[in-house]
Write a structure and sequence with these properties.
Strand content: 5-15%
Structural class: alpha/beta
Distance between the termini: 24 Å
Helix content: 25-40%
Shape: globular
Number of strands: 6
Mean pLDDT: 97
Largest sheet: 6 strands, mixed
């Protein structure tokens, strides 16, 4: 059975609003974030899901419960939390100013003080960007390309096992993680260059085929386009 997966990015959080790095660290949803999610939830309220899943971070859990509560055509039980779908881990940069973090990563990559992350990635490639992130991290805790790729593959494999008898599921995850999935599994990503960052509350639709192959068929769709 092919399973359709609606990947929802969590709503805006306090750290998003303050322009802070937010990977495995967490912050609460903002009023705007909740309002935006309500629009997404209403757009999906008549879409039947066999199940709903979430990253194990609170901002994602709060988002999935909002989706569940507004959906009127699905009978969803307890939400299963999937830590493999957590956001990318930024190590010592967690909670720091985003622009200052990109500067440090750009310098580690030999590019000078660049703050436009898309320019950085497109100059050196996503793999080297992850390596530079780990290099720039004083404690070298941030996920590099190999670590993140292994986790993404494990996430899809785990989801495939969980959804073998489910036709359509909703899963709440995170912006950089969804974007990296897009670079790897969307036919408009080339595995190397950057793609647009998914909006808070946006929906990316993927398919897991019988053989476990995953593909993204629609990326970063806002509520009005669903």
């Amino acid at each position: 059975m092919t399973t359709e997966v609606y990947l929802v990015r969590h709503g805006e959080t306090m750290f998003n609003q303050l322009n802070k790095v937010q990977g495995w660290c967490d912050s609460p949803l903002t009023v705007k974030g909740i309002d935006d999610l309500k629009r997404t939830a209403r757009a999906l309220s008549q879409v039947h899901f066999d199940n709903m899943y979430s990253s194990d971070l609170k901002r994602a859990i709060d988002t999935v419960h909002l989706m569940k509560n507004v959906n009127s055509v699905s009978e969803i039980g307890k939400i299963k939390k999937l830590p493999e779908f957590r956001e990318v881990f930024f190590g010592s940069f967690e909670g720091d100013d985003i622009d200052e973090t990109w500067k440090q990563i750009a310098k580690a990559a030999g590019l000078g003080e660049e703050t436009d992350v898309q320019k950085i990635i497109n100059q050196i490639g996503i793999e080297n960007f992850r390596e530079a992130t780990k290099k720039a991290d004083p404690r070298h805790l941030a996920e590099n390309s190999e670590e993140l790729d292994e986790r993404m593959v494990r996430a899809i494999e785990n989801l495939h096992e969980l959804t073998k008898h489910e036709e359509r599921v909703l899963l709440v995850s995170h912006g950089d993680f969804i974007k990296t999935l897009g670079i790897k599994y969307w036919n408009q990503g080339d595995g190397h260059h950057d793609i647009e960052f998914p909006n808070n509350g946006s929906v990316t639709i993927g398919k897991i085929h019988d053989d476990g192959r995953f593909e993204i068929i629609a990326y970063n769709q806002d509520a009005e386009n669903l």
